[in-house]
Every structure is written in structure tokens, then in C-alpha cells.
Amino acid sequence: MSNGQNMKSNQQPLQTTIYLDCNATTHTHPVALQAAREAMELCFGNPSSTHLTGLHAKSFLESARVAAAQAVGANDSEEIIFNSGATEGIQSSVFSVLVHLLDEFRESGRLKRWRVLYGATEHKAVPAAIHHWAEVLRIPVEIEAIPVDKNGLLALDFMEERLKECALICTMAVNNETGVIQPLEKISQLLKSQDGLGCFWFVDGVQALGKISINLSQLGAHYSCFSGHKLNAPKGIGFLWVSQNAPYTPMIVGGGQERGKRSGTENLPGAAAFGRILGELNNPQQSIFLSHQMLESCRQKLISTLTKCFPTLIWNVDIEVCVPTTLNFSVEGISSRELMNAFDAAGVRVSGGSACSSGKSTGSHVLIAMKLPKWRAENAIRLSFGPANTESDIDLACRAIQQAGEALRASCMIPNLPARAEQLAELTQHLDTGVSELRSSEGTRTWLMICDPKTSFLVSDCDRALTELKNKLACRGLAHTQILQLDALSQHSALPPEWRQLKSASGTSLLFLPSAHASQSPTDQKPMQSADMPKKGSAILFSPERQCLEELLNGSLPQFITNRTLLACFACEPTALTAYEFIDSTVHHQSSVASSVLTGFATHNSTSHINSRIECTKEELSKKLSLENLVVLDVREAFESATSHLDEILEQIIPRRAGKDENQINVKILPLSRLPQFILERLNQPREERILCVCRSGQRSLQAAELLRRLPGCESFSLKGGLADLLLPTLSLPPRSVPQRFHGKE
Ligand code: PLP
After folding, report:
1. Each residue's pLDDT tens digit, 77-117
2. Is it the case that residue 492 has pLDDT exceeding 50?
3. Which of 9, 120, 535, 657 stands the most exposed, by the fewest C-beta atoms within 10 Å?
């Protein structure tokens, strides 16, 4: 579903949001909202009460139960237990089987079946529940993951070999990351064989609902869980189907609701909403949902757009084995973080297929189980829509994806697809001299130093991603960039004259340009700005590792580098901003100003505004923007700011003040990768400044503001929560008239 956000009266929405992350959660559909509202306003009773209001509520609940039973092919609606969602259903199922095994163990002192198997690509809740409950109950089961093939399909032979000893098998119907449909029919046949009888089967049906038809009783499964929010009902409602011949031990006891299987007053609004959605599923002719055929046609549109925009895109799974609503892919040369940022800026919400811990991307366990190459597992994107989407949502999505693709292309981020001529002209015109950080898609950090269009250096300590980086450089018109590889340097001593390398005892490297090469640059080229480039006697320092800096600080240093220079660089660790040019104080030692600036920066010791809070909330933004001479720095990368213009966003969100020129918001674009150069200029020439840094979530801007604050004279702030907070939807639903019946007698 697309929705215009932050619409103020008489204004166009800032941007249309196209939500393509339906496997994570979905919006609550108006019909579900209406049902929930009816349950809250009209049938608000407690289903356990015996008066008429309670009976009405019970009737609401029971019709939802009937709809649920029909949707999943239950034999009887009594097999449906409403609960909070799939995670709870998983716990209840695993717990029930293990308690059953424990009883057997206590009675006979042994287990007839002692294995618990689960698919290697299951949702994390499944293995977590098995391990947790086996440990809590101290039951000696052997827990094993069923391997999968390159498409994520379960190895049936592995299951067959272990079937005789199996007490519980947990498999999913459809995978949440890839959309792969598991061969439930084949698993059913296995379990109906002689060796399979006696093994309980849990099916995670969460991602199957609304996408493939499912008949649990026919399959002969024992348990299956579902979550309302994955199919346009609200969060906090789900149900567990338990076959009549499966053991069940309640985990929550009390008032005996849900026939004693799950106590606690029922979530009636949630059940009513989910029931209405399930009713739509049961009535496909007049449903709010798209048909399977329409879903396939939507998928085809997305596939065509994506492959056109990203020629190096690779599908991580064969689409023939997937539901039509999930696409999982990686793009060679572009990291999932960059792609997600570009999509997000263009209004398309997708999900990265990998988890991020402490800034390092770890590949998705699903893609790793499928033995995908590391770079694909780490850089996967999952795009998922749902049956409640419309064809026009998908058309909008395709247009926004094209925009994101164009923005990436204009920033030379798409390998093998050079920027268009007009984009390139623009790019070379604004070629940023000085140092910037350049990352490869696999995360290798490199530093690009541009002296002028003809003289540039790329410093890298890794050669794995060099082809990709060379493409990016060529696209920027920097085809002749000298590549200095820190690791290779000592062997080849391929350094240009004037450059020097230092190696620490642990083998890591630093690279210096102790005296200027600026003076060697051809004067017929674009003249270098004095503040931009290193002056004679300056040092350029690239540090691959914090440890290296520490070692060097503690050791004896060559003459051309001072403790202070190292310290200044060290002060910048461990941020992403490791490459700096610093005025070497061996030359500038006579200038106490330069020395104190450096020392202050290095030791976080700037004095002027140490006490003012660095983070500014969106409520304080208006006041902040009215500060004199404030510059708003957009620290997002160029491919993000290209599709979502910070000045326009601020203009719309912050009420205009008197229309005076001096009240105009002064927005500058400075991607975080260019911050080193920005800081350098200020280290060379301190100035009084007020800067408010803004990014998408407030993380990058805080990093930038913290560094800038260390510059003397720089009063820097970061917008807390970033654009995400600023663009928080402010629309409020119109109040509904209070229904007559609410006041009247029943
Ligand atoms: N199983 C699958 C396949 C899922 O995709 C999810 C949610 O992402 C769950 C289980 C857990 O669902 P919930 O968080 O609604 O309990």
C-alpha cells in the first residue's frame, strides 16, 4: 500500500511511501480496522460473560475462529487457539511435544524417539524455542538442523534417514526471507510412512497465509502457527492450529479461556480483525486481495524494472520455487546498506537480508544455509509485497526504484553502468578535491585523494574489490588514479616520490606524504584551492587500524612525523573517518595557533560550547533553525539526497518565517565520506560556525556533529532521530460518530 506522508492541509505530500516489506509486517487493512473498531465499540464485551453483551462478543470471536479453521483446512474450529502470534504458537507447540516426551521418559526411563529436527532456514524463533525448552525441561533430545539445497529446499533424504528416531520435525511452509515454498506434500508422505508415524510435525504457516493454499488436516500436520500482522490484521493477534490427535500442554493458565488452552481475556478486536481478513481469504471471488495471477504479474513488473536498473543484479533463489510476493537479490558492487539507503530516500521500503551487529554486516542465516557466496549473503535485499497491494502500488514502486537506480548511477555506484554523459559532466565539474572515503560493496575501506582531475590516488589495504573500485573511479573521470596498496607497497616500493610508508610491528601500515606534492600538480589544470590541498610540509595519514596507531605512538617515530600528528589521527578513531590530512607541526611548530587547534581536536578539548546539548529534537528544530548563521549539513550520501531534498522537506515542515531572505534555511550537502576534507579545511583555517547535521536516522549526523564539535569555534548539533522522526506521519484519523447502540439499551 502506498501512502502520502506528512500531508498538511493544502499541501502535496512530501513523498509517496511505497512499502515493500510485507514479510516483516503489513499495514492494517481498512476492513480489519473496521472489524476491530466494531469489536471495541459495539461488541466490546468479555466473551466469558454470560450476559448479552458477553454473548455478542463471544459470537464475534467464534465467527473469527470458524474463518480461521476454514482458511487453513482445520477439521474443526475447536482446533484453533487464538494467541498473540506465531512466536507464541511456536513455543506452545515445542513445549507441548517436549512435555509429552518428558512424561514418556519419566514413565519408562527412555525415549522411543529422541531427535528433534528443524529446517536450517526456519525463523530464529524455532531453534531458539527447541533449545530453550529442552534445556528448561532437561530432556535429553538431540537437536539437528535439516540442511537445504541452493534454493533453500529441505533435504528430504536427510529427514528420511533420521525419521525412525524423530520425535518432532519443524518445517516452514514458506520462507520469510526468500519466499521459497517447501515441499509440504512430500514431507507429509514421509511422515505418513511407517517410520514417520509417531513423529509430530510442526508447520510454520506464517508466510504462506494468503499466498498459497494450505490444508493442514489433509497434510497430516500436528501444529501450525500464524500471525495476523503478516496479512493486514493488527499486531498482537495470531492463532495456533493444534490437531485433535496432538498432545497439548497450556503455557498460560488462569481463567480457562480458549477452552483452557490459553488463558487470559481474549484480544477480541484483534481476533475480529484477523477473522475479517481470513473471511476475505475464504471468499476469493469478492476479495480485497489480488489473485495469484495478478501477484505474478506484479512480480514480473518488479523483476523487469530491477534487472533494467541494476545490470549486475543476481537473484538469490530461483523464482519458480517461490511465492510471487517475495524477491531476494544481491547487486554486485553495491552493498545492501547503500541500496537500502537509496531505496529509502526514493520512498521504497525494503529490507536488508542480513543482520547488522556492531556495524559489521553478518550474512543472513538463511542465505548462509543455502551456501551462497559471502558477498551475496551479506548484501542481500528482500523486497516483499502482499496480496493487499494494488497494481498501481507496484507501478509506483517501479518508478521509485528507477529513481533510486538513477541516483546511484549518477553517483557512480553502479558498476558496469557508467553515469550518463550529462550526469558525468555534472560530476566532473564538482569533482571534490582532497580526501574522501570510498567503500567497496564488500566493506573494504579505501581513501581517495584527488589533487586535480589528472592526479589522484586511491589508498587501499585490500585488493579484493579493486576492479569494482576502478570502475567507480573511471566513472568519475578518474581513470588514471594511482592505486597504492598498503599491503603490496613494501614488496614493490611503488610509492610515488615523496610518499613514505610506515609499518608497525604487527604488520599494519600507515602512509604519509610528508611534504607537499601539491606543488607538483600541473598548473594548467583546474587550480587547487589553497585550503583544499596539503601545504608544503603537510602529512597525509592513512591508518588501517587503531592498533597500528597505538603501536606507533608508543614506539620511536621517524623524524617526519610527530606524536601530535599521530595523536590527531588517533583521535578520529574508531569512526569511519580514518583518513585525514594534517598539518605537520614539525613544519608549523612556530605557529602555536595551528598546534593548539590540532591538540584541541585530538584530545576532544575544544572549549567554547562544551556544555550545550549536541542532540536537538524535532520539537526544538524551529528554534534551532532561527539561530543566526546556522548551516544545515545534509550528511547523507549523494544518491540519497538526490531523491529526497532536505531543503524541500524542511521548507514544508517548518513554518515559513516572514519570508525574509535571512530567514531562509541554508542547507549544504556534505556526505559523511567527505567529512575528512571538511574538517581539514577547518583545521587549517579555524572559523566560527554553527552547524546542524541531519541524516536519515540521526546516527551519521551524531557522528559528524561530535567530530565537528572538536573544532574550535564550531558549534555543532545533530537532529535526533533524523529525517525518520521529522517525517513521522502526522495525519490523524477522523473521529467516527458514536454509534446509537452504544448509548441505548440492548
Ligand atoms: N515465522 C515466520 C516464518 C516469520 O516470518 C515470523 C515473523 O517474521 C515469525 C515466525 C514470528 O512471527 P511473530 O513475530 O509475529 O510472532
Report:
1. 999 999 999 999 999 999 999 999 999 999 999 999 999 99
2. yes
3. 9
Residue 86 Cβ inside 6 Å of ligand 1? The answer reads yes
- In the reported structure, the alpha carbon of residue 125 is separated from the centroid of ligand 1 by a whole-number distance in angstroms of 8
Residues tagged active-site? 356
* Rounded distance between C-alpha atoms, residue 704 and residue 696, angstroms: 13
DSSP characters over 176-240? TTT-BBP-HHHHHHHHHSTTTTT-EEEEE-TTTTTTS---HHHHT-SEEEEEGGGGTSPTT-EEE
Instruction: Give the distance (Å) from ligand 1 centre to CA of residue 2.
Output: 23
The predicted model scores a pTM of: 0.86
The number of the ligand 1 atom at minimal distance from the alpha carbon of 230 is 15
Q: Is 715's C-beta closer than 6 angstroms to any atom of ligand 1? A: no
Strands 200-204, 223-227: pairing kind: parallel
pLDDT in tens, 582-640: 555 444 444 566 666 766 776 666 555 556 789 999 889 988 888 888 999 999 988 89
Q: What is the pLDDT confidence band of residue 559, given thresholds at 50, 70 and 90?
A: low
Q: Best substitution site from 82, 87, 124 to test ligand 1's pocket, by max atoms within 8 Å of Cβ?
A: 87
**Among 698, 22, 697, 730, CA closest to 344:** 697
204 lines ligand 1 (CB under 6 A): yes
**What is the distance in A from the centroid of ligand 1 to the CA of 283?**
25
